[in-house]
Specification:
Blueprint (H helix, E strand, L loop, with lengths): L6 E12 L6 E12 L3 E5 L6 H8 L7 E6 L2 E2 L5 H11 E4 L11 H11 L4 H14 L15 H13 L5 E5 L7 H18 L2 E5 L3 H4 L4 E6 L2 E7 L15
């Protein structure tokens, strides 16, 4: 766990039940979770353990039935929809397992969109896009639409989109699931560099041993509850990270 004493995500007694009127499924059950600035954390556990649901709750994509979630002191469970959207836009980057790229936009346009919504300068957007596509190794695919990209390529574009605005937090649901070993390592290197240099907090929901071995904190969920929470002293950040340019 990061040595900072600044808690930036604080979930208290959070629960989420699906289908409460028919066959209730308690996906997240009375979870207490504190995350410090600059953490590199993996949520792990068997399928159905609540990893993705907890990630969605922390990102404000879903609301708990019970409990509160503070991010930077803001209780996101009480924000009205328009303010919650604005909060996510300026604070959180998302990487979805299903990519969620906009099909009518090119890869470059998908990555540009978040920064345009933030009203960034055109020159700043262009430079950031150029750097990110170099890092994900898709410089020759910037004008390609998602349907013409492989699953792995779409995932890399989705990661670039999440990182584009340099958010305070990145919540990633199985970000390496469709990548080969080299591509996965390169993406994890990029994330590790941003984590170390810019103190971006990364939270992964994952089954991937490549992600888990790089995490500095591993939280295991079983049946919607935290079964174990292990902090590691080593950073697991390779020396090659120093050479990356972001």
């Amino acid at each position: 766990m990061n040595t900072s004493t600044s808690t930036v995500i604080d979930a208290h007694k959070v629960s989420r039940t699906f289908n409460p009127e028919t066959i209730p499924v308690l996906a997240v059950d009375d979870v207490h979770l504190h995350l410090e600035r600059g953490e590199f954390t993996a949520l792990v556990g068997p399928s159905g353990s609540g990893k993705t649901t907890l990630l969605n709750l922390l990102g404000g994509l879903d609301k708990p039935d019970k409990g509160i979630i503070h991010i930077n002191g803001v209780d996101i469970t009480k924000l009205p929809a328009n303010k919650l959207i604005d909060f996510r836009l300026h604070n959180i980057g998302f990487v979805f397992q299903s990519f969620n790229l906009i099909p009518v936009l090119t890869a470059k346009e998908n990555v540009e969109l978040i920064m345009q919504l933030q009203h960034r300068k055109k020159t700043e957007i262009a430079e950031r896009v150029k750097i990110l596509f170099h890092q994900i190794g898709l410089e020759d695919k910037v004008n390609t639409r998602p349907a013409q990209l492989s699953g792995g390529q779409q995932q890399r574009v989705a990661v670039a989109r999440a990182l584009a605005s340099k958010p305070q937090f990145v919540l990633a649901d199985e970000p390496t699931a469709n990548l080969d070993s080299k591509s996965a390592a390169n993406l994890l290197d990029v994330m590790a560099k941003l984590n170390v240099e810019e103190k971006i907090t990364f939270i992964f929901s994952t089954h991937d041993a490549r992600v888990i071995e790089r995490a500095r904190r591993v939280i295991t969920l079983v049946d919607g509850q935290i079964h174990s929470d292990t902090a590691r002293v080593e950073t697991n950040v390779p020396h090659e990270v120093d050479k990356l340019k972001l």
